[in-house]
Specification:
- The chain is an alpha/beta fold and 200 residues long.
- The chain contains 10 helices and 5 strands, in the order βαβαβααβαβααααα.
- It has helices at residues 10-23, 35-44, 54-58, 63-71, 86-94, 107-118, 143-153, 158-165, 169-183, 188-199, and strands at residues 2-6, 28-32, 49-53, 76-81, 99-102.
- Strands 2-1-3-4-5 form a 5-stranded parallel β-sheet, with helices on both faces.
- Helix 5 (86-94) links the parallel strand 4 and strand 5 (99-102).
- The radius of gyration is 17 Å and the shape is globular.
């Protein structure tokens, strides 16, 4: 598991690396507080999980975050936030951030979130989300669309969903497009989050 940490405090980076290496023996984790170094590390590992200190991004009005995600679409971004702000969390959700971890979370929680994100899952603290989704909204979907959504939320690719349901990847794509419209979400990440919140 390749993890890059971008944080304003080198002591926080060292502490996180030390703790997580004990919990995830196979982790390859490095950290930096410099944007230039972050770019260099992500260039070398364009599909890494990138843990980003929310304060560093917020001060730059998400420009760095958007540039990173545009240039390296395979990276998985996890934001580390010191405080709960529903409006800010919603902005991150809309920018395809895969997870949020409170800065004061335990090493075990960091480890669990990294494991989930490495499997393609989305992890947002339920209490930090602005509007909980209504489970009734799922009733607007067909039974097959609900099956597709459930597998999507479990981190499966279109090909894997197709194999599980014995349908083609093109049919999976058509189901996803239809359910995105019905749930009023823009992408896989938002659809997975919708499902996770609705089932909570």
């Amino acid at each position: 598991m390749r993890v890059i940490m971008f944080d304003r405090q080198s002591i926080f980076i060292h502490g996180a690396i030390h703790s997580l290496q004990k919990l995830i023996p196979e982790i390859n984790m490095t950290g930096t507080g410099q944007a230039e170094d972050l770019w260099a590390q992500v260039s070398a590992s364009p599909s890494a999980i990138v843990l980003i200190d929310g304060n560093l991004i917020q001060n730059e009005e998400t420009a760095l975050l958007e540039a990173l995600m545009h240039r390296f679409p395979a990276i998985r971004v996890v934001m580390v936030l010191a405080k709960k702000e529903a409006r800010w969390v919603e902005q991150l959700r809309q920018r395809n951030v895969m997870a949020i971890i409170p800065r004061n979370a335990s090493p075990e929680r960091f480890s669990a979130v990294l494991d989930s994100v490495s499997r393609g899952m989305v992890c947002f603290p339920g209490e930090w989300i602005k509007q909980p989704s209504s489970p009734e909204a799922l009733l607007a979907l067909s039974e097959r669309q609900r099956e597709v959504l459930k597998l999507l939320a479990a981190g499966e690719s279109n090909k894997e969903i197709g194999r599980n349901l014995n349908i083609s990847a093109a049919t999976v794509k058509a189901h996803l497009e239809a359910l995105f419209r019905r749930l009023d979400v823009k992408n896989r990440t938002q659809a997975a989050m919708f499902y996770t919140r609705a089932m909570a």
